[in-house]
Specification:
By secondary structure, this protein is of the alpha/beta class. Helices cover 33% and strands 23% of the residues. It has nine helices and nine strands. A nine-stranded mixed sheet has the order 1-2-3-5-4-6-7-8-9, with helices on both faces. Helix 2 runs parallel beside helix 9.
Length: 286
């Protein structure tokens, strides 16, 4: 692991790091905020997965999470959204020409179709490789006490990874998530490209399908802006609400008037999400 930068903020340390990934066979960059803490103290961990076109930098620079994490004593980890590098995309998707496929659009899946299967193993990267790297390099991280959140494509990632790993994550939240990629243009393009035409293979990457097949989580929170121009065509929050209601899965879904899809929305509610996760991570939720 290489240190790219460190900065003191709210009494803690905001770092940006890189390493060569065995999952993606590329160099990957991520950020970690470690709040102030006593020597030898361990702290719970909150993962944040970003959306289409984003890197670790979007939330690191615009997410306004450090004050809340310092107050709650929570480590905040922000990975990249995909592998990156020259000619990493397939020949049918020239680099940087498709915002919803390839670089910046990993969808947190393990690709099985050429040419994507060489590098696009973001599920394994988030679920296995990066946690192991955090364990090895951040001894203050209590990896027995984790939560996960994310935005848009990253909200899809947070919901699906959280639902597939209920013993790892004590709570799951999302901002404007893609709740059912099986049923939206972004998801159909990405899952079809990465996983092939067998739609049955897509189900483990669809939060609604996971709920319908029996996956459960102890605590779920979603915030969705009602002025979000992607709500009706891509995000379809109502599908997740319907799936949870039919399955008896408790979920708090808040529709926020006037808010769009941007970081103005995310930063407005980030502190509430961190406090909500903090209560569940520390066992103090009512």
């Amino acid at each position: 692991m290489k240190t790219i930068s460190t900065n003191t903020s709210h009494g803690g340390v905001q770092g940006v790091y890189s390493h060569v990934s065995t999952c993606t066979h590329t160099e990957m960059t991520f950020s970690v905020f470690v709040p102030p803490h006593k020597k030898g103290e361990t702290l719970p961990v909150l993962w944040y997965l970003s959306g289409l076109t984003c890197t670790h930098a979007n939330v690191t620079e615009k997410g306004e999470y450090r004050k809340a994490c310092a107050e709650q004593g929570i480590i905040f980890i922000a990975p990249d959204t995909s592998p990156r590098g020259p000619d990493i995309n397939g020949e049918d998707v020239p680099n940087d020409e498709a915002y919803d496929m390839g670089q910046g659009a990993g969808f947190y899946v393990n690709a099985s179709q050429a040419p994507w299967d060489k590098h696009f193993h973001m599920r394994d990267y988030i679920e296995t490789e990066l946690p192991a790297l955090i364990t090895a390099n951040f001894p203050m991280a209590d990896m027995s006490c984790q939560a996960i959140t994310g935005h848009s494509m990253g909200g899809h990632g947070a919901l699906t990874i959280g639902l597939r790993n209920p013993d790892r994550f004590k709570s799951i939240s999302a901002f404007s998530p893609i709740v059912s990629p099986i049923n939206c243009p972004w998801g159909e393009k990405a899952l079809g490209g990465y996983l092939g035409d067998n739609r049955a293979a897509w189900a483990e990457y669809d939060a609604c399908a996971l709920i319908e097949s029996g996956a459960r989580a102890a605590h779920i929170l979603i915030d969705q802006g009602m002025a979000d121009n992607f709500l009706d065509g891509q995000l379809k929050t109502h599908l997740f609400e319907q799936a949870c209601a039919a399955a008896g899965q408790a979920a708090t879904i808040r529709l926020q008037d006037g808010y769009d899809h941007s970081y103005y929305f995310i930063s407005s509610f980030m502190a509430e999400h961190i406090a909500w996760h903090g209560a569940h991570l520390k066992g103090s939720a009512v």
